Amino acid sequence: MTQSDNSVRDLPPSGKLVLKVLEYNGGLTQKQIVEKSRLSQRTVRDALDRLQDGGVVEKNIYIPDARQNLYTLTVDSEAPVEAAPSLD
Fold first, then answer.
1. What is the rounded distance in angstroms from the CA atom of residue 62 to the CA atom of residue 39?
2. Distance (Å) of CA 3 to CA 8, 13, 31, 45
3. The predicted structure's pLDDT at residue 6
4. Mean pLDDT taken over the chain
5. pLDDT tens for each residue of 1-35
């Protein structure tokens, strides 16, 4: 188990939602993540900080508007998030 696996497992549900939004949509700005996840800006900012600290998400310059950042999954974290065990 890697550090990124542990950091994802320890995330609150809002952090896991932000991770899934990035997984499904690719690179997004914080504003776009807020719109797609319907979470508050503060919640998304906190989740992105935690994901960056865990090495799961990286921040780059958003070329169309350099005042914003583009958040993407890191290359080694593009494996799907572990789902809950099936009850079958």
1. 21
2. 9, 18, 27, 21
3. 66
4. 84
5. 455 666 678 889 999 999 999 999 989 999 999 99
Tokens of 14: 């809002």
Cα distances (angstroms) measured from residue 27 to each of 6, 24, 31, 46, 72: 22, 9, 12, 17, 4
Whether the per-residue pLDDT at 80 is higher than 60: the answer is: no
The angle that helices 41-53 and 30-37 make with each other, rounded to 10 degrees, is 120
Instruction: Please tell me whether the overall predicted TM-score, pTM, comes out greater than 0.90 for this model.
Output: no
Q: What is the distance between the alpha carbons of residues 37 and 22, in angstroms, rounded to a whole number?
A: 10
**Backbone angle region of 80, left / alpha / beta, with phi > 0 → left and psi within -120 to 50 → alpha:** beta
Is residue 40 within 8 A of residue 48, CB to CB? The reply is no
CA distance 16 to 11: 6
